[in-house]
# Entry
Amino acid sequence: MNIAVAQSGRLAVSPYARRLARERSLSLETLRGSGPGGRILAADVLGFVSADAPAASPEVAAPVAAPPIAALRIAAFATSIALGALQDLLAALGNLGRAFDVDDVLLRAAGRAFLEIPDARGVGDTAVALELADRQAVFPVAAEMPLSSLRATRLAALAGSRDDADKAAVLSLRLLPTSDIRPVVMPLLPGRAMRLAVSLSTASDHAECLLTVDAASVDEATASTWLATLKSAIEQPLRLFV
# Structure
């Protein structure tokens, strides 16, 4: 039985894996998912061998078939996010003694996008991993967490040395140094279905974002919608502070 069904009461399966299973007339309930939270991936469908399959005759040596190899399906999306409204809001809050950074807002916006686009987060609790110099800090996505608490948690992670690379997180977030040069390809980190690289322009008036996803876990349409939701949240930032 699929572990995600036992834990959450619903079957967790990527859209591509569902299509492969339908083409092969396989029941999804018979598959064991290898993705986060027991999510059924394309490789699970391609590698499935029925228990009812006839065994090879002992008198005749069966040919050894190479195991099926699922092609890695990577999709990437890019967008430019205007930061004028956010910078004005951060400056106004700073004058009131409430200091926040763009980093804090990016973490909050990523979490808000997952809450608004639940298909992007799969099964289980959603978390975002912030990539640091040689480690990761994982932040749970909680709508009720004040931005001030999120900032305090981020600053504590920066000051500490704990590495959360082995903790579950659907997305890793990398903040690149300010530059006019930005990447066009970013590999996924182990255990992360999505990776967002953000590079601020030298004028800090906009950010260039590159989202890379494992299309076997998050379909392209969902990933595109998620990035558009993130962009909207940052360009209209007031709702991220309430």
